[in-house]
Amino acid sequence: MKDNFKIIMLFLFSIIATACKKEEKSPSYHKGEMTILTDESFKSVTEALAEGYMINYPETKIKVVSKKEDLGFLDLLKDKARIVVMSKDLSAEEIKSYEEQVDLKFLPAKFAADAVIFVVPKDSPKESISMAEIEQGMQSEGKEFIFDGANSSNLNFIAQKLKKQPKDLKYSIIPGSKNIIEELNKYPGKIGVIGLNTFSRPYDKESEQLKSMVKILPVEYKGKQYTAGAENLRTMNYPFTRVLYFLTNEGNFNLANGFIRYSCTQLGQMIVEKEGLQPYNIYRREVQMR
Questions:
Q1: C-alpha closest to that of 153 among 233, 67, 219, 46
Q2: Taken in order 151, 72, 269, 290, is the CA torsion positive or negative?
């Protein structure tokens, strides 16, 4: 009788242990580790969302790593990353590659309106810049515009706006948006091209310090000047407004999709707003996509 009881108990323990192992390996949005790849231009808002998610789900650990936009996208296709932050409009060929290699329908999870901005030193006499100046300057051998690198989101976005390939544009490079701001004084007549999120966070000491070093140029477009303020981002009147979105290769509701859902709901959108960017989903009906 005792032997039978021992056999039954061993059998039950075996079932419980197997169930526990399956539970550990099963997909979960509230525990586990994940790395998010993001261009440096919007790393700040990505980190803020990751921090918020980890506070809500303490058993999760999310690492945010800077990587040029094009390279991050390639890592996603090669299954070297589970989730990336993007801003550029993918070509039909890139969308096809995504759907074939990832085996998912292309559904970008849009979560914020950011902007590419043009900056000059505080003492510069320049007060604004026109679309014509930007287009001409990007074709000039003088390479008057300074970007944070090739394959970057800022360069990709400007190229798309000008309907050019990045390789056909002429520009200078200083690696890192913060370095552009800090070193711009060394290059008289040059114009820095950075992402708004580089220093958009209100009341943040580093953001305020960086912002105090440069002058943001309004962009003249169709006879009017537009700044990268909240209202112009919301209506997309600022010509270089861009929409940030997540892409994942995760087909189930695991950590990546849990994070995406969080970022696009009210709590995540409040974090976007605190970052000084325009929440996409709260004002979705007002955003005019061009």
A1: 67
A2: positive
Cβ partners under 8 Å of residue 242, min gap 6: 87, 88, 113, 114, 115, 116, 153, 157
Q: CA gyration radius for the chain?
A: 23
The secondary structure of 143-197 as a DSSP string is: --EEES-TT-HHHHHHHHHTT--GGG---EE-SSHHHHHHHGGGSTT-EEEEEGG
Let me know: does 259 contact 28? Beta carbons within 8 Å.
no
3-state SS track over 229-246: CHHHHHCCCCCCEEEEEE
CA distance 29 to 162: 40
Query: Is the distance from CB of 87 to CB of 243 less than 8 angstroms?
Result: yes
Q: What is the mean pLDDT of residues 88-94?
A: 95
What residue has token string 């440069």?
A: 214
| Residue carrying structure tokens 């600022």 | 238
Spatial distance between the Cα atoms of 283 and 279, rounded to a whole number of angstroms: 7
How high is the pLDDT of residue 240? 97
- Whole-number Å distance between alpha carbons of 81 and 51: 19
* DSSP letters spanning 25-94: HS--SSEEEEEEEE-GGGHHHHHHHHHHHHHHSTEEEEEEEE--HHHHHHHHHTTS-SEEEE-SPPPHHH
pLDDT tens, residue by residue, 142-190: 999 999 999 899 999 999 999 999 999 999 999 999 999 999 999 999 9
The whole-model pTM stands at: 0.86
Confidence of residue 282 (pLDDT cuts 50, 70, 90): low
Per residue in 226-275, pLDDT (tens digit) is: 999 999 999 999 999 999 999 999 999 999 999 999 999 999 999 999 99
